[in-house]
Amino acid sequence: MTQRLIGTISSSSHAYEIEIDNGMLTDPKFVRHISAFGPRFAIITDDRVAGLYGEKLCSSLSKHGLEAYLFSFPPGEPYKVRHTKELLEDRMFEKGLGRDTCVLALGGGVVTDLGGYVAATYCRGIPLIMIPTSLLGMVDASIGGKTGLNTDYGKNLIGSFYQPQKVFIDPAVLRTLPIKELKNGIVEMIKHGLIADTNYFEYLEQNSKEFLKLNPEILEKAILESCRIKQTIVEQDEKEKGKRHLLNFGHTIGHALEKVSHYSISHGEAVVIGLIVESYIAMQLGYLPKSAFERIRKMIKTYDIPLQISTPFPPNDILNAMSLDKKSRRGEPHFVILEEIGRPLPFDSIYCTPVEEIVIKDALQWMNDALCRH
Ligand SMILES: NC(=O)c1ccc[n+]([C@@H]2O[C@H](COP(=O)([O-])OP(=O)(O)OC[C@H]3O[C@@H](n4cnc5c(N)ncnc54)[C@H](O)[C@@H]3O)[C@@H](O)[C@H]2O)c1
Ligand SMILES: [Zn+2]
Predict the structure, then answer these.
(1) β-pairing, 14-20 with 40-46?
(2) Minimal-distance CA residue to ligand 1 atom 18
(3) Which of 40, 46, 101, 374 would disulfide-bridge 67, Cβ 3.0–4.6 Å?
(4) Nearest 5 degrees, angle CA 48-CA 50-CA 53?
């Protein structure tokens, strides 16, 4: 069943729809939906998704008389760089594509970020449609208008805020997504429940088995709600001054863990530890009840997400990494503090606060003691 969510970004008066429908991408009617967005299409994707869905989409657009080209690059974060963007742009110019071209960014977050950024600057900006195919792409990367790429100086340092014309989500494509990638997305969905909506957290809690079996009805509802939560937060704070800090829950510690482990821990694995350690901080500060903390821990287990580190990390290394993070404020890490599941503390509408070093160190010590395999 098609479910629609109308996304409106209030400060830019730009409205777009997020449409979710199981099986949509392989339905012949999909081409008709797409055809409304222009005579020419540049499908930007990675090689893996190209083989699974991109080539078919390109040929079915061509069969229906639309001009469509497929541009793909190797999968993975190392390709989310300027060089790939230049190559894609040059190949698009070689085909003579101009302002009347619409970019279809078909893939995981790497593709939606990079493809979105190509659309944002090609001929000073051309229409963009997001078709996320990883769970993380669906519930996180394709929502909120952030596009960009990594440089040697850091991740996502170059980019722009650029809103799509529409986001199409087909949960059926998750059947080919590796389970590890699926879990990366689930972590962000759990985060959305924690920072904004107890009922949603409960929904995820109660439907974990069906979710992991990829039951389409459960997926559609869970993905839609997650998009709605992120969309609502972003709408209220498009440029990251207040409410958007909530989306950083679990990421203050998570980013530091990724960095200190030299990225041997994946983003999802790091953020899930971040969620629990930052919840621990809230508990130690006397806000989050112990029962809620235990419930969060249990919920993560329900989804069979590893809550483990393979070696202890010296708390000072993590503190250093946190103070160097581009999201720290004047070198001081800030934390989202929960007072209940789904209820963060507002702190004068900033939704994050600095925390005394001794409390952070104590939480990191707990992490090393309780979550380390050795
Ligand atoms: N713009 C934002 O607001 C935002 C938010 C969160 C994350 N991100 C970005 O998203 C990126 C991570 O996204 P990701 O986790 O989707 O990584 P990804 O795009 O690298 O995808 C992960 C892997 O899954 C494969 N894949 C994707 N869909 C598939 C499918 N349906 N079947 C089989 N394989 C499939 C890809 O080829 C890739 O190998 C990071 O670069 C991150 O910075 C952006
Ligand atoms: Zn994240």
Answers:
(1) unpaired
(2) 108
(3) 40
(4) 105
**What is the pLDDT at residue 282?**
98
Give the gyration radius of the chain's Cα atoms. 21
Q: How many Cα atoms sit within 13 Å of 24 on the Cβ side? A: 24
Entry field: residues in the chain:
374
pLDDT score of 330? 76
The dihedrals phi and psi of 76, each to the nearest 5 degrees, come to 115, 155
Distance CA 91, CA 94 (A): 5
Query: In whole angstroms, what is the distance from residue 321 CA to residue 324 CA?
Result: 5
DSSP 239: T
Per residue in 253-284, is it b (16+ CB within 10 Å) or e — as a string? bbbbbbbbbeeebbbbbbbbbbbbbbbbbbbb
**Residue 181, pLDDT score:** 97
Pocket of ligand 1 (CB under 6 A): 46, 48-49, 52, 75-77, 80, 107-111, 113, 133-134, 136-137, 140-141, 144, 146, 156, 173, 176-177, 181, 184
Residue from 26, 77, 113 to probe ligand 1 pocket by mutation (most atoms less than 8 Å from CB):
113
| Residues contacting residue 257 through CB under 8 Å, at least 6 positions apart | 265, 270, 273, 274, 309, 313, 318
Q: What is the DSSP letter of 172?
A: G
- For residue 31, the model assigns a pLDDT of 93
The amino acid occupying position 335 is F
pTM for the model stands at 0.96
What's the confidence (pLDDT) of residue 6? Answer: 61
Distance CA 235, CA 196 (A): 14
- 357 counts as catalytic: no
The helix (H) or strand (E) run that includes residue 166 is strand 166-169
Residues in the chain, pLDDT under 70: 1-13, 238-240, 374
Residue 363: is it exposed, middle or buried by C-beta count within 10 angstroms (0-12/13-18/19+)? buried
